[in-house]
Hints:
The protein has one domain. The strands form two sheets. The protein has a six-stranded antiparallel beta sheet. A three-stranded antiparallel beta sheet has the order 1-2-7. About 11% of the residues have low confidence. The chain is built from five helices and nine strands. Helix content is 24%, strand content 41%. The radius of gyration is 20 Å and the shape is elongated. With 196 residues, it is α+β, with helices and mostly antiparallel strands.
Amino acid sequence: MTARLIRALALMAMVWAALAAHPTPAQAADAIEVRSAQLDPSPDGWMLAADFAISLPQRLEEAVNRGVMLYFVVEFDVIRPRWYWFDESVTAASQAYRLSYHALTRQYRLNLSGFAQTFPTLAEALVAMSRVRGWRVLEPDQVRVGTTYDVQVRMRLDTAQLPKPFQVTALTNREWTLSSEWKRFRFSPETPKNAP
């Protein structure tokens, strides 16, 4: 074996040992939960309406208050089940939220696709991030009326966007690996409102 491979294996062994030494806190396991999710018809397709319950572990709150930006991603998938072949992926979409704190103004800032809002408290910023509305996830021609699809939605902390030292922390500390379970539901589209 090469020296580089031996070092990589040693690093992996240390990471696994650290994970075993720090069991997952119950708080981190339930830090994000999908409360509800549905697709609402519109003239341009279907919009996702989802509600999440978000509770940051103390270490993440401290990180935000010290100027670390946190990125959260809402992921959405639509799959068409097929009994005769592999399921077909109809679409996959995601949108990212950037949460930060500005010490000079003492305000929390939530950014989504270039649109930013400010909040006086972290709790208010999390409430705003927990309500997804008006996100067009399906075009009219992507699904067929009368066909049933499997839909899944989740939210997670994107640890790849963290500064490098925090990415290492995320590998060894489960409080930094926030993710909800996938919320799955069936969707049978009807003709969108005002469609010809």
